[in-house]
């Protein structure tokens, strides 16, 4: 919504698509691999272990924030601090998933690598189809005017 309110429609659509498709990919891998969770969990948790959905989703979110939000801050020290906070947040999340024994270390590392891979594919698609999506969005107001004029 923040991107959309700043008239960054393509970026907001890309953000939603990246998050939704990424979650779908992680889910499909989870039900395909079917790796059981550690047996000595501190807090009961259902489902399969790999990949960690929390780590995957947070990694994508942090990459989106670093790529789309942090550049709005002009001060390099502020940018560095925000990047460090975002990466620290991911590290704390990974540590919590391991501490609570909801995942194996390989689940969390694999989730970060899977999310980074999906991020690269998503960026490639964004760059490849940016002009196409921009053209469609630019024609939408014309289509809306034509629809209104027919009424």
Question: Would you mind describing this structure in some detail?
Answer:
Pfam families: PAP2. It is a single chain. The chain has 151 residues and is mainly alpha-helical. It has one domain. 77% of the residues lie in helices and 0% in strands. The protein has five helices and no strands. Helix 3 packs antiparallel against helix 4. The longest helix has 46 residues. The protein is globular, with a radius of gyration of 19 Å.
Tag the structure with descriptive keywords.
single chain; mainly alpha; PAP2/HPO_sf; Phosphatase PAP2 family protein; transmembrane
In short:
Helices cover 77% and strands 0% of the residues. The chain has helices at 2-5, 9-33, 53-69, 76-99, 105-150.
Radius of gyration: 19 Å
**Total discrete domains:** 1
Instruction: Compute the number of strand runs.
Output: 0
Unreliable stretches, pLDDT < 50, 5 or more residues?
none
Mean pLDDT: 85
Strand content: under 5%
Protein name: Phosphatase PAP2 family protein
Domain Phosphatidic acid phosphatase type 2/haloperoxidase: 15-123
Transmembrane segments: 12-33, 54-73, 79-100
Keywords: Membrane, Transmembrane, Transmembrane helix
Architecture blueprint of SSEs:
Blueprint: H1 2-5, H2 9-33, H3 53-69, H4 76-99, H5 105-150
Helix pairs in contact: 2-3, 2-5, 3-4, 3-5
């Amino acid at each position: 919504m923040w991107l959309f309110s700043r008239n960054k429609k393509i970026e907001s659509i890309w953000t939603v698509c990246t998050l939704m498709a990424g979650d779908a990919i992680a889910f499909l891998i989870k039900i395909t691999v079917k790796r059981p969770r550690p047996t000595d969990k501190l807090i009961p948790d259902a489902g399969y272990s790999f990949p960690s959905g929390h780590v995957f989703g947070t990694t994508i979110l942090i990459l989106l924030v670093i790529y789309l939000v942090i550049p709005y801050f002009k001060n390099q020290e502020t940018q560095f601090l925000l990047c460090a906070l975002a990466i620290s947040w991911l590290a704390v999340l990974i540590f919590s998933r391991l501490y609570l024994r909801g995942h194996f270390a390989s689940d969390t590392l694999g989730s970060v690598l899977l999310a980074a891979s999906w991020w690269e594919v998503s960026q490639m698609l964004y760059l490849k189809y940016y002009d196409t999506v921009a053209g469609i969005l630019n024609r939408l107001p014309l289509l809306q005017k034509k629809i209104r004029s027919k009424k």
